[in-house]
Design goal:
One of its GO terms (molecular function) is hydrolase activity. The chain is of the alpha/beta class. 48% of the residues lie in helices and 17% in strands. It has 9 helices and 8 strands. Strands 1-2-4-3-5-6-7-8 form an 8-stranded mixed sheet, sandwiched between helices. Strand 1 and strand 2 form a beta hairpin. Helix 4 packs across helix 5. The longest helix is centred in the first third of the chain and has 52 residues. It starts with a helix and ends with a helix. 34% of the residues are buried.
């Protein structure tokens, strides 16, 4: 009887040991799966996140289509530096077609940056590549400390030097936050040099009069974050005096709305650029018709 009891106890203990081993293996497998799952999923998730970051997900408005413009087969972002005082560091996109030739852009887009950012911000955000993929040449400039440029004329001359050195004729200028100290004097003094102006809550808008704003004919996109109750509200009030402006409010975004909501910012930007390009093509078409009639 005692022998049978010992065998019974041994069997029970063996059973529980096996259960513990199995339970331990299950727990170990669960931990390993938990640790490895992000790495397994990363390959399938990253492309979607990149597309979403670049503002290409969701229903694309018809205005974003570029069917008549050939798509580049290769886009390169290269860096350069212009000599001078101060030297100017920049990034630019180079697009190549299927024949290996550099493509002529639909428009050139010059991107400035805010106080805490650089030209690298636009590269990291995907904006430079996105613009190039839609047929635009993007040029992002690293601005010097605005305090070192004492006057509006100095800051204007710096931007003109950049444009002239690279042969940029009539760009669309994107200006967020601090860069308004550079862009707004250029807009006021040399608005004819700009094909368009994209103002993202720039500083300095209160420095100009209603009459000065009314004299500017440059098409302008005013973008601001709905949660930006300071510069966003102030710049909207002042820039709305420009005669040819469009306003885009990005809900759920703060001052750097292009960082908070890049998808919405990119869509608004592409629609604006598409409209400008369409107007440019229409203007060239009318000009050709006039020249043809004069020849007759």
């Amino acid at each position: 009887m005692k022998a049978e009891q010992k065998l019974c106890r041994a069997g029970i203990m063996h059973f529980f040991r096996n259960r513990l081993v199995v339970l331990g293996l299950v727990l170990l497998a669960t931990v390993l799966l938990y640790l490895l799952l992000p790495a397994i999923r990363q390959g399938s998730m990253e492309p979607f996140l990149n597309v979403q970051r670049m503002g290409l997900t969701g229903g694309s408005p018809a205005a974003l289509t570029t069917s008549r413009f050939p798509k580049p087969v290769n886009i390169t972002i290269r860096t350069g530096q212009l000599a001078g005082d101060p030297p100017l560091f920049f990034r630019e996109t180079i697009s190549v077609d299927a024949a290996g030739k550099m493509m002529q852009p639909r428009l050139q887009v010059v991107l400035l940056h805010g106080q805490a950012f650089t030209s690298k911000t636009w590269e990291d955000l995907g904006t430079l590549t996105l613009l190039a993929s839609h047929g635009y040449q993007a040029l992002a400039l690293d601005l010097p400390d605005s305090e070192s440029m004492k006057t509006d004329q100095n800051r204007t001359n710096l931007l003109l030097r950049f444009l002239d050195s690279l042969g940029v004729q009539a760009p669309v200028l994107i200006s967020p936050s601090m860069s308004g100290r550079f862009s707004l004097p250029l807009l006021m003094l040399h608005s004819s040099r700009l094909r368009g102006f994209v103002a993202v809550a720039p500083v300095g808008t209160k420095l100009y009069s209603e009459q000065q704003y009314h004299s500017i004919q440059t098409p302008t996109l005013i973008v601001f974050g709905a949660l930006d109750g300071s510069l966003g509200t102030q710049s909207l009030k002042n820039l709305s005096q420009l005669p040819h402006h469009t306003v885009v409010r990005i809900d759920g975004a703060k001052h750097a709305c292009y960082m908070d909501k890049p998808r919405e910012f990119h869509q608004a930007l592409l629609i604006f650029l598409s409209e400008l390009n369409r107007e440019t093509l229409s203007h060239h078409g009318r000009k050709k018709e006039i020249l043809s009639e004069e020849k007759k």
